Amino acid sequence: MNDYVIRVLASPSDIDPQAWNALLAAQAEPSPFMRHEYLAAMHDSGSASPERGWTPQFVTLWRGQVLEAACALYLKDHSYGEYVFDWAWANAYEQHGLAYYPKAVVAAPFTPVPGARLLARDEQSRTLLVQGLVAVCKEQELSSLHLLFGADADIAACTEAGLMLRHTVQFHWTNVAPALGTDVSSLPPEGARFALGRPGGETGYADFDAFLASLSHDKRKKIRQERRKVAEAGVSFRWSRGTDISKADWDFFYRCYERTYREHGNPPYLTRDFFQRMADTLPEAWLLFVAERDGRPIATSLIALSADEAHPLVAYGRYWGALERVDCLHFEACYYQPTAWCIAHGAARFEGGAQGEHKMARALMPVRTTSAHWLAHPSFADAVERFLEREGAGIENYLDHLGERSPFKAA
């Protein structure tokens, strides 16, 4: 292994975009949020920057002049924008007079979407990259390493390296019609986010009505009632994709996005410049829904799309905001309009994001997601491992409980 070299780079701009994206495209579970354009925009726009507590130290593995593996590593002096909550761990360190920050995080900033985090040519390179990550953390005397929302191959490599696993639950809709013989409600959560969605020549739902027909009577009736309220309020929708999203629409979207954060008492994570960079460098990854009433835009919902034609089309619910309050508008903008679009355009999956049991009533089913963690302090590592065992059992019970509440018709 002496011909492999680890190099730590201080900025995404220090990595060739084509080489990075080629590694990403070779992964079984790529994500648009690991594209070089996305990460560079996070940094260059000041959204994820050292000034905001995100110091990039991208770890790369080289064999001669060939980039064999790479990952987006950030040094963090807080735990905001991660969505795998470790505040209690940080507090425990502080109570014992120890420094938890800075810590190391392998993630897409502010983006709790599962996908490849360790971009590698093969499993050997992935294993060496994990070992290199731990070595970097030890060398810099960091408290811990956290790989968030990893793909199956990432989690396997982390497990082999001795990292501890932590599970959370998300809610995803899949374009598999039960009429084709697939009992969606019985599919296991483990790995389902990548296994589901139009496999092996199967056909998805013919239209939104066919999707509704797969649901129980109560759920179907509820969705129709919610959609009717929005329509009767005089609200209609239009959508734009990629370069068809105008600057005026991007500006209006950001007004809505910013207002949503301000209403919760927080400044927005992402700057307007970030979204402009996305429009300029990665337009194909974005789908925008605009709600209008009396000829005026009143709300938006921004959806990300997988930008890799070699893999099934996947939609990711990301951001929404409204300037006027309309009953059930959030459900229409964030679930029903995207679901209808996914059906019409043959998308395999719509990932509704973290948290929110209410999503199950809209047929977004619970899916287990996994992160991996390494703590330098042996005693704290032992304590966290015991905690994760208890928490993991609770997650399993929670998934079992959710599984009893399927919105689909009984088989």
UniProtKB/TrEMBL annotation:
It comes from the Bacteria. This is N-acetyltransferase. Transmembrane segments: none annotated. Pfam families: FemAB_like. It comes from Acidovorax cavernicola.
